[in-house]
Design brief:
The chain is α/β, with parallel strands linked by helices. It has eight helices and eleven strands. The protein has one domain (about 10-235): Carbamate kinase (3-Layer(aba) Sandwich), CATH 3.40.1160.
């Protein structure tokens, strides 16, 4: 019997993760897999909020690098996260999990506006809440949005789902001798420029003492292992 160590968590999923083996867009197999993984922690009583990126559809920083105004590019990126959030909502509800999407920018025909007390009420009722459109502001990533929402809803931990097993001391793709770090401090991540999340997100987590766990999404059962304290991935804290 699995026993959760955390009552309320935020899961950060990159847009690229939803591509699966595709080069663009949303993989139906991958989004179904993510929904099954989220269901596995909801079933053991964990209150779960999700922040999804939009890099599988549009990446604001990349667009600004070839001449687009950064604010316009980031607004387009926010809309990409809404597309992903609605797709994930549909996949979760097909798994029998009641889900609500809340957006940081108004689009009330498709989703609820982000209202903190309403979000917390949904969580208390066992619903999954997906926070879309980042913080609603340009120049802030969805990583920063995940930390911000985590603080606002009083989540106990932020789960950062990635392509790799955890945080390495160097790029494991470029360096076959790269070592997996099981535990690391916020300050070490900042000082060594370990690019697991953007530096603003790490700083915000450090200032508010929100622990993070970086783990591999594609290993089945990893999300449940993290919330049950099985030592998967890399833990980042004080």
């Amino acid at each position: 019997m699995y026993k959760a160590q955390y009552k309320r968590v935020v899961v950060k999923i990159s847009g690229e993760a939803l591509m699966g083996d595709q080069e663009f867009g949303i993989s139906s197999d991958m989004i179904r897999y993510v929904a099954e993984e989220i269901r596995s922690i909801v079933e053991i009583g964990v209150q779960c909020a999700i922040v999804v990126g939009g890099g599988n559809i549009f990446r604001g920083i990349a667009a600004s690098s070839y001449g687009m105004d950064r604010t316009s590019a980031d607004h387009m990126g926010m809309l990409a996260t809404v597309i992903n959030s609605l797709a994930l909502q549909d996949a979760l509800e097909k798994q029998g999990i009641q889900t609500r999407v809340q957006t940081a920018v108004g689009m009330h025909q498709m989703a609820e506006p982000y209202i903190l007390r309403r979000a917390i009420r949904h969580l208390e009722k066992g619903r999954v809440v997906i926070f879309a459109a980042g913080t609603g502001n340009p120049y802030f990533t969805t990583d920063t949005a995940a930390v911000l929402r985590g603080q606002e809803i009083h989540a106990e931990i932020l789960l950062k789902a990635t392509k790799v097993d955890g945080l390495y001391d160097s790029d494991p793709v470029k360096n076959k001798d790269a070592k997996l770090l099981k535990q690391v401090s916020y300050m070490e991540v900042l000082e060594r420029q370990l690019r697991v999340m953007d530096m603003t997100a790490i700083s915000l987590a450090m200032d508010n003492d929100l622990p993070l766990v970086v783990f591999k999404l594609k290993t089945k059962g990893n999300i449940r292992k993290v919330v049950c304290g099985d030592g998967v991935g890399t833990r980042i804290n004080t």
